[in-house]
Design brief:
This protein is mainly alpha-helical. Helices cover 67% and strands 0% of the residues. The chain contains nine helices and no strands. The chain is elongated and about 135 Å long.
């Protein structure tokens, strides 16, 4: 014989509560109007669409961008700043315009095509021979400036800045003339030495010795004394430094 199913009191109470809740919800829905139900349905549909779009955007973060997005290139403005690659190293030293003006590192603003390397090596002796007449003008200019600086009446008429400029012109012109004379003397000495010995090439050390001897012979008496005194002091200083070094090593 089959046994009858047995129900407890708790099961019966739960079934009664579910039935009462379903009846209450049906009563509340039946009391709502048709317009309220349609508005609620639209709101639910919109929320579903928004959730789907958010899930698509989150999933596309790791996806490759579309080709259409890459094909659209924005036109750059001509006044926009220039763009450079980050892989290109930036120089640590920047060129500031006007910073090196008046120094030996300044770039030459003027270029003389007569001394351009594209036309071959410059023949210094020929250039010197062609423009040697400029030494006379330089010597006259030097004498005028020196006489102006020695005259106290003329000095009182000039400002301190003008006196400094004239002094600089006199010193630079004199040093330039001396350098040109030494260069001419060196060229003549080497030329005579090549004629006497028949050598085509002269060592740098031999050139230095020949030029020193020629300069010493062309000096006046006072100039020779000054040169000899300067060499004597230099030699004495070297000997004293060597003596101090040896004495210090021996005392240790």
């Amino acid at each position: 014989m089959s046994r009858r199913p047995q129900f407890s009191r708790q099961d019966l109470d739960s079934e009664d509560e579910d039935a009462s809740l379903s009846d209450a919800s049906n009563d509340s829905l039946s009391s709502l109007s048709f317009g309220a139900l349609s508005a609620a349905q639209k709101k639910i549909d919109e929320e579903d669409k928004n959730s789907e779009s958010e899930s698509d955007s989150d999933g596309g973060f790791f996806e490759e961008p579309s080709k259409k997005h890459h094909s659209q290139k924005t036109k750059k403005n001509k006044h926009a700043p220039s763009e450079t690659s980050a892989k290109k190293p930036v120089s640590k030293v920047r060129e500031i315009p006007g910073l090196l003006d008046g120094t030996k590192y300044a770039k030459t603003k003027y270029h003389d095509i007569r001394f351009d390397s594209a036309f071959g090596k410059v023949n210094e002796s020929e250039v010197r021979r062609n423009y040697k007449f400029l030494d006379e003008y330089r010597q006259k200019e030097l004498e005028q400036v020196q006489s102006l600086l020695k005259d106290p009446k003329q000095r009182n008429k000039l400002s301190e800045k003008e006196l400094q400029d004239l002094d600089y012109i006199a010193k630079s012109t004199k040093s330039r003339l001396d350098a040109l004379k030494n260069k001419d003397l060196e060229r003549e000495v080497i030329k005579d030495y090549k004629k006497k010995t028949g050598k085509e090439f002269v060592k740098r050390s031999d050139k230095r010795k020949l030029v020193q001897v020629a300069r010493f012979q062309n000096m006046k008496g006072k100039q020779r004394e000054k040169v000899l005194e300067r060499k004597r002091k230099r030699r004495f200083g070297k000997e004293m430094r060597r003596f101090e070094q040896n004495y210090g090593d021996a005392s240790r």
